[in-house]
Amino acid sequence: MGKTADLTTVQKMTIDTLKKEGKTQKVIAKEVGCSQSSVSKHINREAKGRKRCGRKECTSKRDKHALERIVKQNRFKNVGEIHKEWTVAGVSASKSTTHRRMQDMGFSCRIPRVKPLLNKRQRQKRLAWAQDKKDWTAAEWSKVMFSDESKFCISFGNQGPRVWRKTGEAQNPRCLKSSVKFPQSVMVWGAMSSAAVGPLCFLRSRVNAAVYQEVLEHFMLPAADQLYGGDDFIFQHDLAPAHSAKSTSTWFKDHGIPLLDWPANSPDLNPIENLWGIVKRKMRDARPNNAEELKATIKATWALITPEECNRLVDSMPRRIAAAIQAKGAATKY
């Protein structure tokens, strides 16, 4: 961004505020996200009392208020749809003008955050669970082996619809995309502790109780030996049907492995969900051509996960618990 004319209204206001606070132009440029020369030109222009030259704006304050109402009614519309509605409302402006006015208001087109869909009973149970675990220390959480399944696709480019939001609105309910538990079309099972990750298991069929117990026998138990040696540990998994089946519970009792009670539909409380995200981000530039190449890429990327990354994620558990309590059981930013 090399011209002060390219700055949005929000950026200009931010520059003025930081300048009054005594921040240097270099610091201001970094915080605003523009070049230092743009900051300098804006400050000098304001100091000289110069106004922006060029043609007068073709839209009034009333037009801008109408545009903001249209955007806020449905934040998932594209610019073309928003421009059409604005035109129907009686405003004569081009599509590019519509886009500029939205940017001047502080709206940016972003990929929406995803949060699980929780009903009232689930929120109450999450809150009760968090209150029960609020005094657990990082050392206690380090004894937990976190596990989960995740679906990997050959193409990572299709991330769905985008949403119009302003700075600070990432958690606005109207800017969020609700998620639901995905069907059992999972492909990969993995586990982690605060020290490292365990071996991956690529699932070839629908995960029922019998298949899941095979995964536990041939992958979870070796992972436990690798991560904990002969020390005691607690195993965590979610409430998927295969996990909560009676025969699975019997399997754990027979093997003397204690389970961590876990609230339903709570991926935001599980640090391995963030680990899957790290793996997928590291694979962003990978272009596997088939399932076998995809598996090889996943294995190679999983092997690059460091103990420091695992430790940092598990150490976040007390903060996740506090966030769940503060949100009264609602889904959190994690």
TrEMBL record:
Domain Transposase Tc1-like: 66-132
Pfam families: DDE_3, HTH_Tnp_Tc3_2
GO biological process assignments: DNA integration; DNA transposition
Domain Tc1-like transposase DDE: 144-295
GO molecular function per UniProt: DNA binding
InterPro entries referenced in this protein's UniProt entry, alphabetically: Homeodomain-like_sf, RNaseH_sf, Tc1-like_DDE_dom, Transpos_IS630-like, Transposase_5, Transposase_Tc1-like, WH-like_DNA-bd_sf
NCBIfam families recorded: transpos_IS630
Protein name: Transposase
Species in which this protein is naturally found: Gadus morhua (Atlantic cod)
